[in-house]
Amino acid sequence: MARPEKTAAVAEIVESFNDAAGAVLTEYRGLTVKELQTLRRSLGENANYAVVKNTLAKIAANEVGIDGFDDLLTGPTAIAFIKGDVVEAAKGLRDFAKANPALVIKGGVLDGKQLDAAEIAKLADLESREVLLAKVAGALTATLSQALYAFNALPSQTARLAAALQEKAENDPTVLAGGAGEPAAAAAEESPEEPVTADATEDTPAEA
Hints:
54% of the residues lie in helices and 14% in strands. By secondary structure, the protein is an alpha+beta fold.
């Protein structure tokens, strides 16, 4: 490969690394062109699956600061540059590898952290972004429904309380008055004022 073409190819891989949230290195030895096309379609917008030359991929990885790829870049190599849902891309690669054992997932990188094949498998077992969002939306909907039910219940509870208070007031008018004045009136009936007696001097004999 001529130097200008090599430089352009490295720059393209560097750009793919920089634009992606992560990358997964695979070996596709034994896969047909049709099977590779099927894999690309299955990944959809989540990843761009590109066949690369190992020497150029090593140079590009070093330029973007990714270490540890040298040992992985052996044999026919293709890299899935993940741009969409990382979990969905990992699931797509894992499921395709199960159906097509010729695809070998070697490792990758996610947010600058290097991952081995086992860690990528664990990533594929996680719930996708859509599932997590659906669960969050469901929890929020349930919470809002409970709050709405509570708000709707307030007027009916208030009405029942008012009706009970009115019924009690009709049976006992002192409820609305708080019973004020009744004890005093009852006390007045129980303890009437004593009549005014004659002046005590009338019982005293007149002075001589």
